Amino acid sequence: MLCKVTLIAVAIAQLCVAAPAHRDVGISIALQKNSSLTTANGTFNHAAAIRHSVKVANKYRQNLINFHKNTGRFPKNVTTIPPPKLMPSNLRRRQNESLEDIGDDTEWAGTIGIGTPPTPFLIDFDTGSSDLWVPSSSCADCGAHQTYDATVSSSSVALEGTFEIEYGDGSTTSGPIYTDIVTVAGVAARNQSFSAVTQESSQFSEDTIDGILGLAFPDISNLGQPPFFQTALVQGSVPEGVFGFKLSSNDSELYLGGTNTLLYTGSLEFHNVSEVGYWQIGGASAVLNNDKAIASGFDTIIDSGTTIMYGTPSDVNAFYSAIPDSQVFDQANGLYSYPCDSPPSLAFSWGGNLWTVSEENFNLGETEEGSGQCVGALSGEDLGLGDNVWLLGDSFMKNVYTAFDFDHKQVGFAALA
Ligand SMILES: *[C@@H]1O[C@H](CO)[C@@H](O)[C@H](O)[C@H]1NC(C)=O
Ligand SMILES: *[C@@H]1O[C@H](CO)[C@@H](O)[C@H](O)[C@H]1NC(C)=O
Ligand SMILES: *[C@@H]1O[C@H](CO)[C@@H](O)[C@H](O)[C@H]1NC(C)=O
Ligand SMILES: *[C@@H]1O[C@H](CO)[C@@H](O)[C@H](O)[C@H]1NC(C)=O
Ligand SMILES: *[C@@H]1O[C@H](CO)[C@@H](O)[C@H](O)[C@H]1NC(C)=O
Ligand SMILES: *[C@@H]1O[C@H](CO)[C@@H](O)[C@H](O)[C@H]1NC(C)=O
Ligand SMILES: *[C@@H]1O[C@H](CO)[C@@H](O)[C@H](O)[C@H]1NC(C)=O
What we know:
Layout: H1 2-17, E1 27-31, H2 46-71, E2 109-114, E3 119-126, E4 132-135, E5 157-166, E6 172-184, E7 187-197, H3 202-205, E8 211-214, H4 228-234, E9 242-246, E10 252-256, E11 264-272, E12 280-288, E13 292-302, E14 309-310, H5 313-321, E15 327-330, E16 335-339, E17 346-349, E18 354-357, H6 359-362, E19 363-366, E20 373-376, E21 378-379, E22 389-392, H7 394-397, E23 401-405, E24 410-416
Parallel strand pairs: 3-8, 4-7, 13-22, 14-21
Antiparallel strand pairs: 1-10, 2-3, 2-6, 4-8, 5-6, 6-7, 9-10, 9-23, 11-24, 12-13, 12-17, 14-22, 15-16, 16-20, 17-18, 19-20, 23-24
Family: Belongs to the peptidase A1 family.
Protein name: Acid protease
Keywords: Aspartyl protease, Hydrolase, Protease
């Protein structure tokens, strides 16, 4: 609880000192990240990684359901919706969790305000989903989180319908839908649809973040409503339909209404979105040690709300098979290890530059202290994304500046300054 308060205070403080580089153009929001899948002693946090993968799989399952509901289509060659993924029983709801264990949140969090007067929420800005939700004041099991109370916001309007995400253990995150004013730094979206959830899966109630703000396209919105950024764009609150992310361990930023040119060098290399819904771009290759293309011609979803990278099980197996002395670490979860002292170099190309994942960003930590084997941030787990789609999360995004352009439906990468 104390920890939570501290987190929010830090986020607000950062917000206040974050003098935007170009206030006339767009607005910077400082993001913070408190931990990762690597423990303090340098070992891989296996349980946290599995919990995160289950969350990601269920998120994409829901995205698929939403996509189909909204468009009548299935993205790519996916014809069956996988069952919700089950959290291994030993990793389910952990009662009596000590504060220092709140270490496995892996989101990039920043604050937003909802309502009149605004209530501050610590939010995960997620380019892999399209809805905003926070806990409701009438939620009994939402953990130690900030909550939304519709009765104290003069601008709150209740809508019909329900928001619901289903999990493999039978739990759901669900609640009624409202519109209200939502502000992110100086950017306001009036009448923004969101859910104030009255029931929360334990995966979220234990999280340090209060909720999620989705930054993908309306096609995958569970609410079937324009996401925050579209609303802000239509209402003229941002000068253009572009936002930029810099994710790093100490000075991360989301820039709304353009890109922050101080944070990258050269120009952005843009690629058209191949599947409007996700920030998905096609024609990708994965290259090992600047030499060998392990896989090519696949699509990639660029997702700030996912921590590591996932490829198809066969491609990922081929990747690690080409690394001497690599080993399967966890078959069921598609995890592999490699010799820590001779790390592989993984790079992606979409037909332009090679964008390399740094050694630091690829290494999730030693399998156990002194083993000399490190777990790689590329997993070969089937998340139900289809047979030709990889999911690139923070382990990739931390190596580049990323621009998400709604106006031209494209994603751009540039070298970090
Ligand atoms: C999170 O990081 C900030 C600094 O970035 C620090 O002040 C704060 O105490 C951290 N919170 C936790 C829970 O580790
Ligand atoms: C390193 O951290 C892991 C996870 O927190 C723990 O299980 C392990 O015992 C630690 N090792 C040492 C030597 O402290
Ligand atoms: C879809 O994928 C399956 C295998 O996953 C394959 O057998 C089938 O031919 C594919 N269909 C199309 C239209 O590509
Ligand atoms: C949690 O702690 C309470 C009181 O300290 C105890 O009664 C309860 O059995 C504990 N629950 C678990 C799951 O350890
Ligand atoms: C928001 O909705 C109210 C009615 O609920 C309407 O009067 C107002 O014009 C709307 N504002 C915007 C910016 O759409
Ligand atoms: C942020 O990290 C970079 C490289 O990791 C380092 O050079 C820089 O000093 C750090 N800045 C702060 C404010 O800690
Ligand atoms: C990208 O899309 C635009 C239309 O939005 C089109 O004019 C352009 O040719 C496309 N570029 C490529 C490389 O397909």
